[in-house]
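Shipment paperwork, digital attachment
Item: protein structure file
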Amino acid sequence: MGFFSWILFGLIAGAIARMVVPGRQAGGCLATLAIGIAGALIGGFLGGLLLGQDVEFGWDLGPFLFAVGGAVLLLLLLEALSRRQSHRW
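Attachment content:
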């Protein structure tokens, strides 16, 4: 995948993850992009552990679902951390 493909892939994966996770997440387009790209990396790592082989990212359904799943996990983790920090004060 080229650089611009990664950007588009991350943006779409992050946007879908933000639609799936309930609540209101802060951030705009750049935050969605970062969540999508980081989610793709997390999903690829976890997919590699589960499948026992590297996940080749491309415009296929399987890798895309791993990217969205990783982004959803990242959003849930960030929300749990922000909720925990708000209870401290």
